[in-house]
Known about the structure:
Tachylectin-2, Chain A; DUF4185; DUF4185 domain-containing protein
Amino acid sequence: MRTLEVTKLRDLTGPGHTDDYGIGGTDLGAAATAPDGRIVAVFGDTFESREAGGPGWRSPVILFGDPGSVRSGLRWTGAAGPSRGYADQVISYRHNARIGGRFGGLIGGTRITTQLPTDLITVGDTMYLHVMACEGLGNVHWTEIHRSRDNGVSWESTGLSWPGGHLGGHFQMLTWELGPDGYVYALTTGFQRDKGLLLHRVPADHLLDAAAWEGWGFAGGAWAWGNVPTPVLPGAFGELSLRRVDDTWWLCAFDAGNYRVDLVPMPDGPTTDLTTAERLTVIGGCGWHDEDHGCGRVAQPYGGYILPGSTPDEMHLVVSQWNTGANWPYRAMQFRARIGV
């Protein structure tokens, strides 16, 4: 049984932390290393004031971080977008607009309130960003992939999208990682926090070919690639982060059903049996009067993204918190989990 020591290092967003980029309140914060070596972190619904729902609404936005600062607390060095110093929305659309014409396999008239990021990945000299086009929280009309060829500064649609109901709604929230075998592996779930996880893979050089994606499924008494994907971990999950850390595979997941954020070592790689895998609870959900961030007790937590620079014995995670009653705190925080044997 492994031991776990959890410490909050700092708030990553909010007043005093991201004012220079026009960010008061925001959440999420999935991160990857850009081809040029800096950290690229993507955030969801973002506002100039600290409260959710204030002025300056945009999503997604991107901040750049210093990789040398991770162990002491990630420090921001800039933001993506044409505005000097201001974190702009990196995808072109209008909030609360109706989309005319055919897009993402859907007929026009669809109302999109926001587009939320789920994860990003670097393959060669290109970064890819997966987003959900939503009408309110939990109602996903489609998901799609965007691409950056300039280290996360600017983004364009790749044209690849899936309807929100793909695979029974289990292909909305996605996390992915590049394996040493040349495949990108992805775990997916719904955005309603009431579904389990599915596993998929696609050759990295065919990432944008929908027909090249295949599921990991149980059929004929055995698990195999190419089967209809079946749940690899039942439950009720939210945000996910699949990463190789020093050549070992790890999953960080918001387990909404059990109100916690878990780290899951995957000794057999992406096809590890997650139903029997060890689970390390890093963040335990609690009430607002019972918080203790010093030991990982957090009210209304979600997210849980593994930061570049983590090691198998010292994992750094981006965890969100939103007081949906008062609309503050609405922020991303960095926690360190020291893992012993």
